[in-house]
């Protein structure tokens, strides 16, 4: 049961692009894609992340992977919530966000073990104190230990923590990940007609999580925090946003960070729900890859681009049909009702409850992968299929309507 604010009128795609741009972000990273156009795409141009020859040892039978990412503007919301509540645990979530945005991308090409991590943290020392830094650094080891309990080895190589208050308003937390793996174990994206699509949930509480996860992940945070939370935070936390943003786009929602929402019989802060750490699927994927690697044609981490991300990794024209998606959790309904963003746009920006997709060659393997996920208390099901087509597209058939993207 959940109570929503009065729903705004849905916005057009052009209106949303303008809002994103005025807030200093891009939903589809057009500038980045233009900048890297024509650059070397590695050994497998359609793979989910760049794969290099084995530069470390020079083996023709191995490959190297290196991946870098951050928690993005989610740190700004963590700063506000921490100042409001004194809850340091939100910084643990920020560590997990920035690690998972690396390791789960790497898992999508079959790399599910023996990953080296190095952190890069830039903070404003006048705003972010030593307790926050201590929490971040110590939780990095704690997260690695948790993954080790599930057969996933993460090796910490230290990193850099710099006081750069002239550049960073609050704090920026990022990680770089490196791994070496056998070339024969690489999962190159080869999505084909006849594939079954398994979807895994971003929300709920897995066996390896200590709290309910709202399912947000680390994408769409600039939009979500400004559209959901109350304008009082603009004056209260001027360090939390870009002052070049038009004032009528800064914290324009109705929610307070500590407003509560009932989810599955528990009362949760809306701020804490948005700050739910990005779920890692590595404990699940370690079992999936170890047992079903040969049945997998691709894996997609539905981060930037959400349900349309798969369009960037196709070798042939196909129609991706998602007509049996997992339940949309309360958090995304709140974002929709506060922002007025159309549901078509929502599926391009947010995972909407389904954040990992596995494209399987046969139904039996798909059903067994679903069972593995559910054994970790992460909901999963066959959410769709792949058909032949003259032009590539994604069709989302949801409770909110049917949407086509190409």
Enumerate how many helices there are, as a single number: 12
Give me the secondary-structure category: alpha+beta
End-to-end C-alpha gap: 35 Å
Report the CATH superfamily: PurM-like, N-terminal domain
Describe the structure.
There is one protein chain. This protein is an alpha+beta fold and 406 residues long. α3 (74-85) runs antiparallel to α4, α6 (221-228) crosses α10 (330-339) and α9 (282-292) packs antiparallel against α12 (363-375). It has a single domain (13-37, 44-213, 275-405), classed as 2-Layer Sandwich (60s Ribosomal Protein L30, Chain: A), CATH 3.30.1330. It has helices spanning 13-22, 30-36, 74-85, 89-107, 130-148, 221-228, 232-236, 270-274, 282-292, 330-339, 343-349, 363-375, and strands at 51-53, 62-70, 115-123, 154-163, 171-182, 196-201, 260-263, 266-269, 296-301, 318-322, 354-360, 380-388, 393-398, 401-405. The two termini are 35 Å apart. Helices cover 31% and strands 23% of the residues.
């Amino acid at each position: 049961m959940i109570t929503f604010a009065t729903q705004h009128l849905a916005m057009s795609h052009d209106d949303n692009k303008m809002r994103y741009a005025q807030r200093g972000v891009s939903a589809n990273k057009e500038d980045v894609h233009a900048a890297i156009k024509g650059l070397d795409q590695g050994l497998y141009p359609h793979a989910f992340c760049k794969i290099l020859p084995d530069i470390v040892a020079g083996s023709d039978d191995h490959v190297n992977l290196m991946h870098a990412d951050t928690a993005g503007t989610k740190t700004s919301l963590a700063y506000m919530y921490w100042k409001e509540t004194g809850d340091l645990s939100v910084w643990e979530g920020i560590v997990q966000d920035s690690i998972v945005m690396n390791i789960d991308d790497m898992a999508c090409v079959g790399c599910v073990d023996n990953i080296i991590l190095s952190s890069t943290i830039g903070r404003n020392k006048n705003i972010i104190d030593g307790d926050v830094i201590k929490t971040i650094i110590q939780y990095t080891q704690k997260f690695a230990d948790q993954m080790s309990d599930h057969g996933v080895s993460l090796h910490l190589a230290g990193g850099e923590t710099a006081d750069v208050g002239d550049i960073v308003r609050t704090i920026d937390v990022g990680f770089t990940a490196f791994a070496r793996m056998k070339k024969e174990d690489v999962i190159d994206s080869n999505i084909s007609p006849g594939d079954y699509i398994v979807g895994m949930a971003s929300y709920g509480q897995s066996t390896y999580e200590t709290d309910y996860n709202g399912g947000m992940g680390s994408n769409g945070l600039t939009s979500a925090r400004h559209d959901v939370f109350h304008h009082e935070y603009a004056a209260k936390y001027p360090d939390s946003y870009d002052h070049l943003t038009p004032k009528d786009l800064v914290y324009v929602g109705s929610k307070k960070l500590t407003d509560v929402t009932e989810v599955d019989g528990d009362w949760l802060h809306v701020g804490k729900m948005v700050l739910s750490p990005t779920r890692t699927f590595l404990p699940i994927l370690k079992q999936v890859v170890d047992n079903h690697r040969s049945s997998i044609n691709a894996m997609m981490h539905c981060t930037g681009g959400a349900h349309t991300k798969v369009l960037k990794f196709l070798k042939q024209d196909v129609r991706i049909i998602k007509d049996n998606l997992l339940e949309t959790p309360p958090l995304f309904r709140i974002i929709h009702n506060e922002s007025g963003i159309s549901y078509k746009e929502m599926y391009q920006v947010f995972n909407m409850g389904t954040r990992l997709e596995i494209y399987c060659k046969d139904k039996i393997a798909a059903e067994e992968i679903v069972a593995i996920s559910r054994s970790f208390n992460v909901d999963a099901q066959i959410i769709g299929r792949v058909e032949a087509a003259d032009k590539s597209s994604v069709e989302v058939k949801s409770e909110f309507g049917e949407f086509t993207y190409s």
